[in-house]
Amino acid sequence: MTLRTLLPTVGVMAAVRATPANPLPGLSVAETDSADQRAIPPELGPDSLAVLSGPTFLYSNACGDVPTGSIGGLVHLDTRLISGWSLTVNGGELLVLRAETIDHYSAQYVLTNPELPGLPPNTLGVRRLRYVGDGFHERVELVSFRREPVRVELRLAVAADFADLFEVKSRVRDRSAEISRDHAADGSELCFSYQRGDFSAQTRVCSAKPADRIEGDDLIWELELSPREEWKVDLHVPLPPGMGVVEPVRGDIADVIHGRADDPLRRWLEDRAVLRSDSAALERTVRQSRNDLAALRLDLEVKGQRILLPGAGLPWFLAVFGRDTLITAYQTLVAGPALAKGTLLALARLQGETCDDFTDEEPGKILHEVRSGELTRSGEKPFGPYYGSADATQLWLILLSEYWRWTGDDETVRHLRDNAVAALRWIDEYGDRDGDGYVEYATRSPEGLGNQCWRDSPDGVCFADGRIPVLPLATCDLQGYTYDAKMRLSELFDGPLDNPTLARRLRDEANTLHERFNQDFWIEERGGYYAVALDGDKNRVDSKTSNMGHLLWSGIVPPERADAVVRQLMSPEMFSGWGVRTLSREERLYNALGYHLGTVWPHDNSIAALGLARYGYRAESNRISLAMIEAAEQFGHRLPEALSGFDRERLLFAVPFPTACSPQAWAAGTPLALIRAMLGVNPVDGRLVLDPDIPAELGRITAERVRAFGQQWELEAVGRSGHVRLQPS
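^ Glycogen debranching enzyme (Alpha-1,6-glucosidase), sequence as received from the core. Prediction below:
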């Protein structure tokens, strides 16, 4: 042994290994986007409101104002068209009496004035009505209750920064030098224009009643109101031409608010399955879910293809996501196959074709995310589309199978044959990076995600002692999905795809994966459970996570181990009373407010509920379902993206995760998946079969206009009895 082997070489440091928190350690901090995501809502207050229609939303405080520098504003297709929108009277802000959304696209704000120069408190009644549809519309109404005439200066301060949504949630670049103004001399319009390279955007604020003057970017009306005199002004911000809202509502603002305008959403809902129950809470939760899924519908053009799918969630994720959309489509198949078919076809058209390090694209891979803002269109961000998801490809295959089971649509399955074969090839040739039989991930992009499973935060996969594992990672859920996908595809190749040889090979591969997975991922200690992952050195990442529920859903858990898995999921360390936590509170990094470190995600729990029901643990599945329905009651019957993991018995009420998206697609799909688990409804040989276990708290459940095999069905169940019958066409 020489001295050189005993002493470190001067100036040579041990190589830093890639982890999800630092996936490309060779890059400097300046070369990566290290800005922290801002919390919602930091400046808008806890009573902030949003109006939403497809890829367009306006986020404001409870007064209806958007303070400059906040995360609020009018955003369309990932570009913020309005960054400031504040109404004042005689130089003072207004007071909120009450503000509520009416529909997902409309809201009403009832305000009055504090004591102001020339205005005693409560002199004015102020109402703001707004909606988004074919543009942003707002009506401001004033009425004076003073006994003598009163002079009022009404000022609307407007700002437009044209920030990309990625910047809104982190740090906004100053574009002021590139923004020009062409405001109308008669006070009827403000016009802001932005041009940088090939990207351009424009914001016009049109006033039906011209302002008396414009100061900078402020519209100002000088009013003299007689006692009980009413005054109003309508404002309109048109949206740029092109794709965007699916069938937007149009009409006079008051008619929209009061439901007198034609609403395409209502027509859309009339064609969907209807649920009735003795439980008003369940009915209202399902109704809210249907409305939210309609609100999130997008009409986009990506790579020359038109896509109509739900965006993932407001405000940060109003875009097409592979994983989110696929799971949402699976959850909602019980309500009809249209979303599933659209998802399969749209994502197949955008399936990866080549290897691209910047976008993590690979042949056969299903995309992760699509964006359309300036940073994407200029090539600074890789989201046009981005493929950094190691599970979307398997989930696409699972949805293809499930769609076929519910519809018997051989034609669509055959049409997608080449896509299915390409997806299988991706699993074996690109997903399995080192040939060990497991799907692993590690980004190649400087803008890529460190974690590419559903737990995609930098610390979403961790050891029990808090260490972050080295890449590449093979998470347990990926292996479960792969097992399920191959078993399901063997059924399709035995059937409409007519390749029995490939079907046998896929079953053999799935069975081999099942055997090896249960050797390599199982941990006997601490009551027995599955590791969340194998790291880049093939060490078991030994934290207890909710991913075990995904393993039950996929069927990769042997029956003899199901008891141990269920005990873990339903233990006080993992079940908060509102649902299963993402991470057991036994683990060092547990945090009731951590994104994947102890929060409770509705979609995650719906997958666990389906998995528990699959293995016959109906009481435990129902416990999750009831907890989710009770949680929804506390949020206006809308489940948020995630709940904080605080113990229910201690806090008594549910607490949302601080930056939870709401509405969010797979949270909106959760109640439908829970109903499927409780009804035990499954397609079998061209008919629907029920195996119900309805909790007594919910009484009777009836579902009408359920679509399967080209027909409509009615399902009814109470307790453990139920029936299915065909409905007349």
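The chain has 20 helices and 31 strands.
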